[in-house]
Structures are given as C-alpha cells and as structure tokens.
Amino acid sequence: MAEWVWEARARTGEIRKGVMDADDKEAVNQRLRAQNLNPVKVKKKGAPISLAFGAPVTSQELVIFIRQFSTMIDAGLPLVQCLDILSSQGDNKVFCAILKDIKSTVEQGSTFSDALKRHPKVFDELFVNLIAAGEMGGILDTILNRLGVYIEKRVKLQRQVRGALVYPIAVFFIAIAVMAVLLTQVIPTFEKMFSDFGGTDKLPKLTQFVIGMSHGVVDRLPVIIGSALTIFFSVTYSYRTKRGKYFWHWLMLSFPAIGPAMRKIAVARFTRTMGTLLASGVPILDALQVVAKTSGNVLIEGALLKVAEKITEGRTMAEPLSETGVFPSMVVQMIGVGEQTGALDVMLNKIADFYEEEVDVAVSGLTSLMEPVMMVGIGGMVGFMLIAMYMPIFDIAGAVKSE
Q1: Same domain for 30 and 69?
Q2: I need a labelling partner for 395 at 20 to 30 A (CA). Which of 49, 178, 246, 317 fits?
Q3: Which of 154, 149, 350 lies closest to 265, judged by CA?
Q4: Closest alpha carbon to 182 in 388, 34, 8, 19
Q5: Which of 360, 369, 358 is nearest to 156 (CA)?
C-alpha cells in the first residue's frame, strides 16, 4: 500500500486536497467518488528531498527558523502562511526547498509533524516528537520557544566537546608531523655531515640510536604508512560494529581525565533533553525512547532502554537509573525527589543547568592540563633529537680547542 496525493472537486465547485493510503490509483478514484468528489489529479506521494547536495542546514539556521516561526505562530498567522514566508527568504537554498516541500505536504492534508518526518537529516526524532506534542496540546508556539532554547544549549555543549577534543588531536598530529620531518629530513643531513668528518662508528651512543631510528623510519616508511592506514580503517570499521562502538564508548567514559568530563557531558545532554520532552507533554516512556536514541553513547542508550522496561513494570525512574551504575548518585537522588514532588521536568532542567556549568569547568581544567603536557612532550622529543645530533659537534669543537 502506498500514499497518494489527490485533488478533487466537490459538488459545490470547491477544490479539495489530501493524502490517502491505497493500493493503486483506481482505488483512490473509487473512494473519492464514494465521497461525492470528482477526482482532478491523483499521483503517488514523492520521496523526501535528499540533502546529499548543497549546503547543510546548520544549527544556527535552525534556531533562527524556530525563533521566526514561533513569533509568527504567536502572532496568529496560519501555519501554511508562516511556512510560505520563511521558505521565500534565507540564503540556504536547500533549507528553503525543504520548507517549500513541508508547506506543500501540509497543504495536502498532513500534520506539521508528519511533514517534518520527511526530512530526518534536518529535523531529528526529538524535534518531530516535540512538534507533535505541541500540535496535540495546542501549544505549538510554546514548544517552538522551548526547542529554540534547547538547540542553543545543545550547540553550546557540542562546542565544549569539540573544544575538549580538537586541541589534543591537533597537537598530536603536529607532533607526528614534526617527528616525521626530523627523522626523514634533518637527521639524514646530520648523518651525511658526520660521515664527511670521518664516519659514524665513533659517534656517541645517543647519536647512533637516533640515526638508527631515522634509518628504521626511512627504510620502512611504506610499511609504517600502511600500518597506520590499517589501524585507522580497523578502528573506523570497529566503531561501526555494535561491539566495537560499545568498547570505544566505554573507553571514552573510563579514560582518566577525559572520562569524567565525557560523563558530565552525557548527563547534561540526557537531563536537558528529557526535561524538555517532559515539560512539553511527551509521555515518559516515549521521552526515554527518544532520549536513548539521541544520547550519543551506546552505554547510556542501553541504560535508558533498561530504565524504560522497568518503568513498564510499574517501577519509578530513579530506582532503575541507580541500578545502571552509569549516572552519578546525586543525579539519581534529585530525579527521585522530582518524581515524588511531581516536578520531574523542572528538576531535570535544574540538573542540566548544574552539569552544563560543571562541563565548563571540566573542559577548562582538561585544556589547562593538556596544554603543558603536550608542549613538554613535543619539546622533549625535539630537544632529545637535537641534543643527540649536537653532541658530536660539541666533541669536535672541544677537540679543536684543545689543539
């Protein structure tokens, strides 16, 4: 059975539009005629617009769209008119095309949330569920405001994560590049100079060791590059498997210094998302399913799905959360208090505020710790090689002076 978009003329002459599930076009025509409608146009519903081309829709563009859309809805403009206005402006042509498609789908009889589902690369499951809750409760403008705040905080959290990871990764690759240049270009130049002075057999042990290391890198460069690529693709492949992803996510949460920061980020994301969903009227089980899928960590996803199973058995949320061992005891206790007082959404947002501040402190501390460690590490490696290369020069200078 497929979806068919239809246009038909009523006996009054009015043109009506809609979407219908049917096996074929003739079945749609028969059902329309049974409703005293004369079919004008019937066609199969098209596939969602692909975002494989053009510029992506950034989080900032999404926030601007939500703010403008919320203002228009709050001012009393019809939904279709709001979409028409927003789709006719903006620099991102891909986003404008998506909004036009959503407007067309809504005009054909679909709900706004169903129209958004056609573009999962832009509007994720969380976004769609919140919009659906707003439509059902008649509070779409309020939901849009909450969505705007939520996405802004999510973007801030993502920037903090990138800030914690980008610096050490960049310094690591810079160190690899510096070592490669020293071992393949600088050390061989020194070796040639020492050979011209009478050979390398009587050089200091440290200098011989560094020259040997340079030979090992230069002679086996294809093997080293091949091994590095093999490791890279093996890690990439393992991350795509269920067990591999579980291992890497476990390692990320368990690694010293980085692990506690990642755990705080995960708690902040979970509590902020869960609090926003519950405040918008989404049932707790549906909210847990959505939060699990958007958690970004398979350990937390599995823990939240187990919590959802326990809630269906009649238990509270706090007890199974404590049993998972993933979330700090303070978070579990505060959630328990929120359940007892009937203000779980408020408590979750307070926890999110606290942990977002904790993430700020953790990321700043992590960066402050890594900066000197990285600089000392790179400086130590470069210094070690330079000392090894200059030791024979010092010996030669000393011998010349004594003569």
Answers
A1: no
A2: 178
A3: 154
A4: 388
A5: 360
Give the count of alpha carbons within 13 A of 293, CB side only.
Answer: 10
DSSP states of 308-342 as a string?
Answer: HHHHHTT--SHHHHHHHS-S-HHHHHHHHHHHHHT
Taking the C-alpha atoms of residue 221 and residue 345, their distance in angstroms, rounded to an integer, is 57
Pair 367, 359: CB distance under 8 Å:
no
Of 95, 125, 152, the residue that ends a domain is 152
> What count of Cα atoms within 13 Å lies in the side-chain half-sphere of residue 388?
24
In this prediction, residue 230 carries a pLDDT of 93
Residue 17's SS3 state is strand
What is the Cα–Cα distance from 211 to 245, expressed in whole angstroms? 40
- Out of 152, 183, 199, a domain closes at 152
214 vs 220: CA distance, rounded Å: 10
Least Cα distance to 143 among 156, 131, 127 occurs for 131
- Whole-model pTM? 0.63
Nearest-angstrom CA–CA distance, 117 and 308 = 24
48: pLDDT strictly greater than 70: no
The rounded distance, in Å, linking the Cα atoms of 259 and 352 is 18
Phi and psi at 293, nearest 5°, equal -70, -25
Which tokens belong to 135?
A: 């439509």
Indicate whether 54 belongs to any domain: no
Percent of the chain whose predicted confidence (pLDDT) is above 90? 2
Amino acid in the structure at residue 5 = V
According to the model, what pLDDT value does residue 229 have? Answer: 92
User: 262-284: per-residue pLDDT in tens?
Assistant: 888 888 888 888 888 888 888 88
